[in-house]
Amino acid sequence: MSRKAGLLSELMSLQRKRMLLLTGFSVMLGAAVTGQAALLAESVQRIFVERASLASVASLLFALLAVMATRALISYGNGYVGLKMAESAKTEMRSQLLRGLSDASLAVALDGQTGGKVSVALDAVDEAESYFSQYMPRMIEGSVIPLIILGFVFGLHANSGYIMLASAPFIPLFMILAGLNTKKRADEKFDQLAQFSGTFLDSLQGLVSLKLFGKAARQEREIERNSLAFRDATMGILQIAFTNTFMLEIVVMLSIGIVAIELALQLVIFNSITFHPAFLVLLLVPEFYNLLKNTGTAFHSGRTSMGAIRKVERLLKEAGNSVDETNLTTIQLESGKLSIELNNISFHYRPDSFELQTGQLILHPGEKIAIVGPSGSGKSTLLHIVSGLLQPSSGQVLVNGQPLNRTDLAIWFNQISYITQHPYIFAGTLYDNIAIGVKDHASRAEVFQAAEAAGLAMLVAELDQGYDTIVGEGGRGLSGGEKQRLALARAFLKRPSVILFDEPTVGLDLHTENILQQSITALTKDATVLTVAHRLYTIRHADRILFMEHGKLADVGRHEELLARLPQYAEMVDIQHRGGLS
Ligand SMILES: Nc1ncnc2c1ncn2[C@@H]1O[C@H](COP(=O)(O)OP(=O)(O)OP(=O)(O)O)[C@@H](O)[C@H]1O
Question: Which SMART domains does its entry note (predicted)?
């Protein structure tokens, strides 16, 4: 769905039927309110004024009871529809967020604080609930029932009707004045909450580093500062709410008082009205103002919710409009050897910063390509572009001659494996962590086979619970080499046509490196491979080497060719030969 119309109107358009239902309920509620007052006034008139026997008014009292029960039932129905509206709006917002964030490019995913995004997806969406469960039902009630009551009162006693008509606009006026301020404060509140959540998660994740650098106390103060700012923003909103309620109460009490005095004067001094209609009007007046007052209170919480909805909308905008995956897929890929063409790609993270430029380059099917170059020259960025995680600013990636669009990514991801230096291990069993390598279900035997091929069998044998050992956050830790092997096992299970690989530079002993190398050779046998290479072994055995410098491809060729013609390359190889000491 288009986001041009705004998230709120998008959400409201999904609620049309329920809004109609609420309007119907409100009309019925208006009839019940006036009916209840009429029956009550009639009962009082008969029992206390006309001194009728209880038996003669029994049917009247039963009717009154029935109307009261119906009113309660309709109110319940109103609340239920409101909750259903809130439920579906929250589901819609969360699924849009989930889609938006998972479809977002890597650059967007890395932008901003994770904790802030989590807070928007959880807290802001929850806060948006009252717009649908409170604000909308009260607003509909407030625009239907008071009109019914007013019409009824005008029929009974026009003067009271005029007083109600003259005083009623003060309530929406207060609502609007307070609401304008609430909207701004609600925006501030959610900014504070997102900042607080972001800093909190960031600090938790980096707790070890903070402690080691003796900065834990400083971070504690930062969290405290953020939390106090959030408290102040919340208290500011509550202050407005209390002032608003106080002002509304005064307006309501004054208005009821004026109508009551006017009725008393007409009844006692001018004798221009009888007890029955006067009492009926007196019963209806508080109903009228209470409804308007409830609308005022709901208006306040509605404005707070709008702030939350805007926060969700902003995050959705940042994530980029989620791609509608239906029928947009154009690329046709079959497993096997795939060629990749980089067609004059340029990319920058931000304007006026580092820029990657590839020129024209074809990676042939089954070719083993190594990317080398100084730190910061753009090797990982190039890998991210080829993987589809980053979208080029201009130029195209072509796979088997077909341009790779954002909509094709699901198909493309099915064909590739990207093994980074720090593979992510999810909280779960070792088995599940390997099994995510395939889109469809993999048999246990296939998972075991993949683990064995990746050299994980020895580790599994040492674990009490074997493949069912919980790893990742909160589970058993894994070493750098073990994580790499786990990532390789995922790839073995997937058997991709293209493998993108970011070799770890440090930390692996020769034995582990040997096991990994054997696994990698077996895995990459038939695939097209693009490796950010640090090991001399990989570089030497590559079919071609891309040498990158300042974001550009400085040269492309075989090891011997580059040694002969590119001094920077020769120097790099020399340093590697001397064990990295220069
Ligand atoms: N998310 C980002 N936002 C902005 N700039 C970035 C981002 N990621 C990387 N860069 C910058 O882009 C440039 C290339 O980074 P990249 O990680 O591709 O280099 P690299 O050659 O892989 O480096 P290394 O060998 O040290 O891993 C660097 O100047 C880096 O600071």
Answer: AAA
Q: What is the distance between the alpha carbons of residues 79 and 67, in angstroms, rounded to a whole number?
A: 18
Rounded distance from Cα 464 to ligand 1 centre (Å): 41
235 CA from centroid of ligand 1 (Å)? 43
For residue 339 the two structure tokens come to 């060629």
Could you say which architecture CATH assigns to the domain 7-196+230-319? Up-down Bundle (1.20)
Protein residues whose CB sits closer than 6 Å to any atom of ligand 1: 110, 349, 353-354, 373, 375-381
89-139 tens-digit pLDDT = 999 999 998 888 877 766 666 677 777 788 888 888 998 888 999 999 999
Q: How many angstroms separate the Cα of 35 from the Cα of each of 22, 94, 359, 572?
A: 19, 43, 80, 91
Which residue among 105, 352, 377 is best mutated to probe the pocket of ligand 1, counting the most ligand atoms within 8 A of its Cβ?
377
Q: Where are the domains of the chain?
A: 7-196+230-319, 340-577
CATH topology of domain 340-577: Rossmann fold (3.40.50)
What DSSP assignment string belongs to 167-185? HTTHHHHHHHHHHHHHHHH
Helix (H) or strand (E) holding 164: helix 158-167
To the nearest 10°, report the CA torsion of 441, 444, 448, 449: -70
Residues in the chain: 582
Distance in Å from the first CA to the final CA of the chain: 58
| Dihedral over alpha carbons 507, 511, 515, 517 (to 10 degrees) | 60
Kindly report, residue by residue over 192-213, the tens digit of the pLDDT: 887 888 888 888 878 877 877 7
Q: How far is CA 214 from CA 98, 208, 247, 488, 526, in A?
A: 37, 10, 51, 37, 50
CB 89 within 8 A of CB 9: no
> Does the pTM of the predicted model rise above 0.90?
no
